[in-house]
Design goal:
- This protein is of the alpha/beta class and 339 residues long.
- The protein folds into two domains: 14-22 and 54-259, P-loop containing nucleotide triphosphate hydrolases (Rossmann fold, 3-Layer(aba) Sandwich), CATH 3.40.50; 263-321.
- It contains twelve helices and 13 strands.
- It has helices at 3-11, 33-42, 75-82, 105-108, 127-137, 142-156, 171-183, 201-218, 229-235, 253-260, 301-311, 324-334; strands at residues 14-29, 45-60, 64-68, 90-95, 111-115, 189-193, 221-225, 238-243, 246-252, 263-270, 283-288, 291-297, 314-321.
- It has a six-stranded mixed beta sheet with strand order 5-6-7-3-8-9, sandwiched between helices.
- It is globular, with a radius of gyration of 24 Å.
- GO terms for molecular function: ATP binding; ATP hydrolysis activity.
- This is ABC transporter, ATP-binding protein.
- InterPro entries: AAA+_ATPase, ABC_transporter-like_ATP-bd, ABC_transporter-like_CS, ABC_transporter_ATP-binding, P-loop_NTPase.
- Keywords: ATP-binding, Nucleotide-binding, Transport.
- Pfam families: ABC_tran.
């Protein structure tokens, strides 16, 4: 990064800052069986689990940042502390200048949370009814409310769905309404947890386009947790990888993937029945007379594709990057330093 870029970063407002942030839980454990249950009545044993371990973090206003890592890495615990749902065990935390766990109304009006597996919509109401309810909850001025509804409805093209019951909407349509609801009060920070989970490819693209627009046009700081590589790679300029509650990578998303994506996944669909011979170095995942799926080293993929096109009658070819899980696993193995 150049000196000019460093100066620009320093001029940005820091909206999220933590220092040695730690969250520990005490969990009761007992020996198995009836005897273990009886012993636990007199001698209860507890173990301490560290969900977030001495984490330092700074996020600037307007950043689109990914939090990635396996289940149990500490991502959700971190988001819960940033939103005030739980209190840290130790360390310093500041979000928009507030200590989140005080749950001050002035703080709660400045962020929003959207979770792909949990809904804030009322299924028996229409989206417009839910919007009106949130307008009252957040005391949104009428002109701001109308401007935001018109703006977000236009981006998503959902004007024809505003007066139908939420329970009749598809999953993709509901997620669009979830995002509109979350953004009605113009939050400064939006926390997203798997916003595209379960959606088809078209709905995922619409959600990504919407979030990119909100980040760029509204200047909303967005913190995304996702296991979908395309979400992270297409939206987030910065990625933070967490493992065992510790931050093991914090930097440029493209550099992260370029360093650790070492394979390409190639899917071939044949025009006629073929006996496919896997090239040297390939790992076959699936094979039939009409289809072949295999992994090859990234640096060999271009040359191999040229030879395959010349040898086989192909109806379609799909080339995909390593999945996010494989990338993150390699980061853990390498100790978190991008090559």
């Amino acid at each position: 990064m150049s000196a000019g870029q460093n100066n620009t970063e320093q001029q940005k407002t820091i909206v999220v800052e933590t220092e040695k942030l730690t969250k520990e839980y005490r969990r009761f454990e007992k020996e198995p069986g009836l005897l273990g249950s009886v012993k636990s009545l007199f001698n209860r044993k507890f173990v301490t689990k560290t969900a977030v371990d001495s984490l330092d973090l700074k996020i600037s206003q307007g950043e689109f940042t990914a939090l990635i890592g396996p289940n149990g890495a500490g991502k959700t615990t971190l988001v819960k502390m940033l939103t005030g749902i739980i209190a840290p065990s130790s360390g310093r935390i500041s979000v928009l200048g507030y200590y989140p766990n005080k749950l001050e109304n002035a703080f709660k009006r400045q962020y929003a949370v959207v979770m792909g597996q949990k809904s804030q919509l009322f299924f028996e109401l229409t989206p417009l009814d839910t919007f009106a309810l949130f307008r009252e909850l957040y005391n949104i001025p009428p002109d701001v409310y109308k401007r935001n509804v018109d703006y977000f409805v236009d981006i998503f093209g959902v004007s024809g769905l505003l007066n139908v019951q939420v329970r009749t909407l598809s999953l993709g349509e509901r997620m669009k309404m979830e995002l509109i609801t979350a953004l009605l009060h113009s939050p400064q920070i939006l926390f997203l947890d798997e916003p595209t989970i379960g959606l088809d490819a078209a709905a995922q693209r619409q959600i990504r386009t919407f979030l990119r627009e909100v980040n760029r046009e509204q200047g909303t700081t967005i913190i995304l947790t996702s296991h979908y590589m395309e979400d992270v790679r297409s939206l987030c300029g910065r990625s933070i990888v967490i493992s065992g509650g510790r931050k093991i990578y914090d930097g440029d998303t493209e550099r992260l993937f370029a360093s650790y994506q070492i394979h390409k996944k190639i899917t071939l669909l044949f025009e006629t029945e073929c006996t496919f011979a896997a090239p040297p170095g390939a790992v076959v995942i699936e094979q039939s007379p009409w289809k072949a799926v295999f992994m090859v080293p990234k640096e060999q993929s271009g040359e191999l594709l040229q030879s395959i096109i010349a040898l086989y009658p192909l109806r379609d070819i799909t080339v995909e990057e390593d999945d996010l899980g494989g990338v993150v696993e390699r980061i853990y193995t390498a100790g978190g330093e991008a090559r």
